[in-house]
Design a protein that fits this description.
heterotrimer, A mainly alpha (about 280), B alpha/beta (about 260), C mainly alpha (about 250), A: about 280 residues, mainly alpha, MetI-like fold, 11 helices, about 75% helix, about 0% strand, flat, B: alpha/beta, D-Maltodextrin-Binding Protein, domain 2, 2 domains, 6-stranded mixed sheet, 5-stranded mixed sheet
Chain lengths: ~280, ~260, ~250
């Protein structure tokens, strides 16, 4: 499928704040047409605030906070675990022997070639349909977890991230110049040491900008977990609609919340990039 | 199903945007199967008790009805935004919903019951269900009732379709569920349902559970509401309602005084 | 005919029956759903290309207000989950359209599921396509454009004869990715009750309880769609790359 350089559609969302450039930001904003646009946007926001129905907010604030938290940790944990799987998946494809490279490639192809919603339903409802046939599952130690919905959500999201990022890491590993690895060998470093000290850090550096964009995409996939009874922020907004029949206001609110999370992700990756590209000459 | 053309297959062929036929009434049914009231077969034809009742009401009221499957969770928005003209999807007439849409007279009413999973034998009360996981379908009176009476002590799990809740009860991922008694009779009689037992009806609260199931229409569409009402009255008076019911259920599910 | 196979693999006969193309098998429904998915994906991709071309040209050559508005469009669409955009556009879109028609004294229209699906996903695709095409146009050798201008080409001829053909090979990998996203995003329409492949699958699975069979079958259909279209895009790319000197970008 496509190589990492082919991922412009997944490129990071245009930047949030560049760290220390407050003054250039000021100059950016203080252009006449921007001021007019900002005033217009504020006007629309105030108008929406005055004319639309927001009285439900206090009643659902607690639930929304819990849902928000659940969305965040599902996102963070699935990205972390997914990335830990992506590294070996990428390495196997970039440099592994055939019997490792082929399954890794197949895994990435299948994950990237089918909709996450389908994967999620297969994992949750497909596995669930087997439970009645195997009564011993209910006696097992894992049953308290298997009963809940979030482990399935976490599993599906993790596998999805691993599949996409496995592909990204494959390209990143390959893009590290061979000379670097040979230099490591000349220093008498072991293969593992070369991987840990030279190969992985450099691949990571190259992959970071793409990973930031991919993480925003992962965030955009999280509301799907509401379809398997996980109560994330999206599910809370749906509940507002179901209880009060107010349709648009909760959806608009959700859009703002996700925009903020996307901004946060972009910022975090900016900081990571700054940190890890320090000392790297262009 | 003489006057009803299923939209399920036709939708794929539909033109980009067609002007609504003035004389056609688009009846919104839930796109998710809800046996024995409405479910599609492999050919894409919808069948079930409610589908036959819709057909009978439309024939009696001389309306040209078109079934339009719509996601249950968005069926009221679909009505308000004009994608459909009436909702006939086992929707209970409740105070909360009546603030947004209008209803016809009821065409059936059944009690809300609690069904317990394997080895779960408790009273269908807040005390009995405390500490258990209870499944309900989203955007139903059962969700509203469970939120009012059970939530907190009981863990609520919300399903997009009743079907998925049934399946999770059989899988043991929930301990019990609250649903409509007739739908539960059908579930308990099925292979999947032999895991589970009927625990009884919940205590009545008409303000939440409503006054039976009616057809929902946009506020102000009195002409359509009245002709549907006339159709409902006709099929109850001439015995069509009872005849259709007898083919699906053991007991009558219309319990109003005529 | 297949009896020997059925005795070899127990359960295969039931599976074959469930997936049979004719009722009571559900295979026909799945294929119909797949066709609907493809239809929407193709429509959305086309709409995305049109929006993306205007968006990219607007971002590169437009005035400051156009550029800022386009940035808002691409930022919002790429940061808000498709599911939420779909719900907002699906309901609000029809509502606003009919309100506008009523205000103009026209009769309200019924927007078909296909049209709504194409519009919603097309809007999303447009934002990504804007970025892909903008990047590709920027990467076109400035000398070529100047040469075109020196020949006295007008802006439209210049775009048609020089900019467009030279940026296409650069944009193809990104566009191919966008097409894959379009096919997979059609699954989200299942949540608003549109009977495309994923909803058909859920209905079949719910009615027969053969969850694994149908979800795996649908997965195979999606995978076929993405793999075949990947090949097609690869072939188109190879054609456009023909005669290009030096190592090509994209495929190491």
């Amino acid at each position: 499928m496509s190589a990492p350089t082919n991922i412009p559609p997944n490129a990071p969302v245009p930047a949030a704040l560049p760290g220390n450039a407050l003054r250039s930001l000021w100059r950016e904003v203080m252009q006449p047409h921007r001021l007019v646009l900002i005033a217009l946007a504020l006007g629309i926001a105030v108008y929406a605030g005055m004319t639309m129905r927001w009285h439900w907010i206090p009643r659902y604030a607690d639930l929304a906070l819990q849902g928000f938290w659940r969305t965040l940790w599902l996102l963070a944990l699935s990205c972390l675990l997914g990335f830990m799987l992506a590294v070996p998946l990428g390495l196997a494809q970039a440099a592994g022997p055939r019997f490792l490279a082929a399954p890794a490639r197949a895994f990435c192809t299948v994950i990237r070639g089918t909709p996450l919603l389908l994967q999620l339903w297969l994992i949750y409802f497909g596995l669930g349909s087997l439970f009645p046939q195997f009564p011993w599952i209910r006696e097992s130690e894992l049953w308290p977890y298997l009963r809940q919905a979030w482990p399935y959500a976490l599993l599906a999201l993790t596998l999805s991230y691993a599949g996409y990022e496995g592909e990204v890491m494959r390209g990143a590993f390959r893009s590290v110049p061979h000379g670097q690895l040979e230099a490591g060998r000349a220093f008498g470093l072991s293969r593992f040491a070369i991987l840990r000290r030279i190969w992985l850090p450099q691949a990571l550096q190259r992959a970071l900008p793409t990973l930031g964009g991919e993480t925003v995409l992962q965030m955009k996939a999280t509301p799907l977990v509401a379809t398997i009874t996980v109560i994330d922020i999206y599910a809370v907004a749906s509940r507002v609609r179901q209880d009060t029949f107010i349709i648009y206001e909760p959806l608009l609110m959700l859009a703002v919340v996700y925009l903020m999370i996307a901004g946060l992700i972009t910022l975090v990756f900016r900081l990571l990039e700054r940190r890890y590209t320090r000392g790297m000459t262009a | 199903m003489n006057r009803i053309v299923s939209l399920a297959g036709a939708a794929a062929l539909a033109a980009m945007a067609t002007t609504a036929m003035a004389d056609q009434v688009r009846i919104g049914i839930a796109a998710e199967p809800y046996p024995p009231f409405a479910s599609p077969d492999a050919a894409g034809n919808w069948a079930g008790w409610e589908i036959e009742i819709i057909d009978a009401i439309c024939t009696a009221a001389e309306l040209d009805c078109v079934l339009t499957p719509t996601a249950w969770d968005g069926i009221i928005p679909a009505l308000l935004s004009g994608r459909i003209d009436a909702i006939m999807a086992s929707m209970s007439i409740t105070e909360e919903r009546m603030q947004t849409i209008d209803f016809t007279n009821p065409y059936y009413q059944t009690p809300a019951v609690i069904v317990g999973g394997q080895g779960v034998d408790v009273e269908p009360t807040p005390e009995g269900l405390a500490g258990l996981a209870l499944g309900v379908q989203v955007a139903t009176t059962h969700q509203a009732y469970a939120q009012a009476y059970f939530e907190g002590a009981t863990e609520l799990r919300l399903y997009q379709t009743q079907d998925e809740a049934n399946q999770d009860l059989a899988a043991g991922r929930i301990d019990a569920m609250q649903a409509d008694s007739v739908a539960m009779d059908a579930f308990l009689a099925s292979d999947l349902g032999n895991c589970c037992t009927l625990l009884g009806s919940v205590a009545m609260d008409e303000s939440i559970l409503g006054r039976g199931v009616g057809a929902g229409v946009r506020p102000g569409e009195d002409a359509l509401r009245e002709s549907l009402n006339a159709g409902i009255a006709t099929i109850i008076a001439d015995g069509t309602h009872a005849e259709i019911t007898a083919r699906y259920f053991d007991s009558p599910i219309y319990t109003y005084n005529q | 005919m297949l009896d020997w196979l059925y005795t070899l693999v127990p359960g295969l006969e039931t599976t074959a029956g469930l997936l049979s193309l004719h009722p009571p098998g559900w295979g026909g429904n799945l294929l119909r759903g797949a066709l609907a998915s493809l239809q929407i994906a193709a429509g959305a991709f086309g709409m995305g290309l049109v929006l993306g071309t205007f968006g990219a040209l607007g971002k590169l050559n437009g005035g400051p207000v156009t550029r800022d508005l386009l940035s808002v469009y691409t930022t919002v669409v790429r940061a808000v989950p498709e599911l939420i955009l779909i719900l907002i556009i699906y309901y609000a879109g029809t509502d606003l359209l009919n309100q506008a028609l009523r205000a103009m004294g026209q009769r309200p229209v019924e927007v078909s599921g296909v049209a709504a699906g194409i519009f919603v996903l097309g809007t999303v695709q447009g934002a990504y396509a804007t970025e892909v095409l903008r990047g590709a146009i920027q990467a076109v050798d400035k000398g070529q454009i100047e040469a075109g201008r020196a020949y006295g080409m007008g802006p439209i001829t210049l775009f048609r004869r020089v900019t467009f053909p030279s940026m296409l090979p650069l944009a193809l990998p990104g566009l191919s990715n966008l097409w894959l996203i379009a096919t997979k995003d059609t699954a989200l329409l299942a949540i608003v009750g549109f009977s495309e492949l994923t909803l058909e699958t859920r209905q079949a699975a719910g009615s027969t309880r053969a969850f694994f069979t149908f979800f795996l079958a649908a997965g195979a259909i999606y995978l076929t769609m993405t793999l075949v279209s990947g090949r097609v895009f690869g072939w188109i790319e190879a054609r456009y790359r023909r005669g290009e000197a030096g190592p090509t970008r994209g495929h190491p």
